[in-house]
Amino acid sequence: MFKITALQNGLENVDGFYFGGVKSGFKKDANDLGFIRSDEVVDVSANFTSNKFRAAPIRHFLKYPKNFKTNFILLNSKNANAMTGEAGVNDIDTLFTRLKETLNLNLVNPIMSSTGVIGYRLNIDKISASFDKFELNSRDSNATVSAIMTTDSFKKELAYEVELKDGSKFKIAAICKGAGMINPAFATMLCFILTDANIPKEDMDELLDGAVKQSFNCVSVDGDTSTNDTVMLLSSRKSNSYNKNAFKEVLNLLTKELSLMLVKDGEGSTKVVEFEVKGAKNLEEAQRAAKALSNSLLVKTAIFGEDPNWGRIASTIGASNVECDEDKLVIFYDDVLLYDKNHKELDKAREADAHAIMQKPNYKISCDLGVGEANFSAYGCDLGHAYVSINADYRS
């Protein structure tokens, strides 16, 4: 048995880490450079984008040996350092050399994570000129999360405390950014999760993979997959407390809540919709159909226009190439029946009820395929007018 309690604020709830953010001049009047550090080296687990053109920070990370430990993460926004070749990777090493010299730091396998415009090398001189602004003993979660925000309209941070049956406790917290280029392959995002739990490295890897699959890999805004998508989990092990089942539940809760924040903050979005597919032949087909619905531009525009057009739902399921049958298919918007074999035409009463549901900021579209027992939910939003105005510089 265990108890999970939500905490105020973010990273400052977790012992063993320091973090902050400063203005280096890339944003007009906001933080654009940040850090996360620890006094001792810590384990780090990570998941990255499925995009074949992985940005330089990810390539730099992957050069380290398996199961390496670290004590520093450098964060920046406005420049993704993506599609910059080997020079982009070398620029990161140069920055860490300057950081070490400027602040007299003992850097062990330092990590960089970037977000912003693709195709430009980092301005090394401008970034390194701000290193002496870092307050290395700072614990300002708000400053850190603001340093990675780009088109985000609100900050995304969460924290929880877990109390086990024996009375011991551990904490977990995270910051996250993301608003555009979000696709079920992985949400466009930087996410940093810190914990003081005494968790083994193998559990970190296993549980983070599982958490990503049920959260960030289930959301969609615009159907594009970024070059910089990153989620990291680090543990200071400052608490002697740990329970695998408890950690799994709280990590899944935290990542699920953050992923829904991403959808809510989708560029121009006004609604968050759960696409539940049940009665599928198997889990793979349930996932495929649910993600097709969450990613369909036809469905997104119907959501934005509050048009209860079940035909777009049905056609998207059929196009996803899963086993289905129009006489077995059943579609609900929340508790309103839109379609089954006996209700193929939408009468005025059900249309009005469905339209009322679609005016809500959150609702569920449930589709029972009636061919099996597998279920899966994906999450998406409308795009509306914002879809045609997403910036052409392709932020990541």
UniProtKB/TrEMBL annotation:
Keywords: Acyltransferase, Amino-acid biosynthesis, Arginine biosynthesis, Autocatalytic cleavage, Cytoplasm, Multifunctional enzyme, Transferase. It is found in: Cytoplasm. The active site is at T188. One of its GO terms (molecular function) is L-glutamate N-acetyltransferase activity, acting on acetyl-L-ornithine as donor. Its main location: cytoplasm. Substrate binds at T150, K177, T188, E267, N391, S396. The record marks T115, G116 as: Involved in the stabilization of negative charge on the oxyanion by the formation of the oxyanion hole. InterPro entries: Arg_biosynth_ArgJ, ArgJ-like_dom_sf, ArgJ_beta_C. GO terms for biological process: L-arginine biosynthetic process; ornithine biosynthetic process. GO terms for cellular component: cytoplasm. Pfam families: ArgJ (PF01960). Heterotetramer of two alpha and two beta chains. Catalyzes two activities which are involved in the cyclic version of arginine biosynthesis: the synthesis of N-acetylglutamate from glutamate and acetyl-CoA as the acetyl donor, and of ornithine by transacetylation between N(2)-acetylornithine and glutamate. This is Arginine biosynthesis bifunctional protein ArgJ. It comes from Campylobacter californiensis. The gene is argJ.
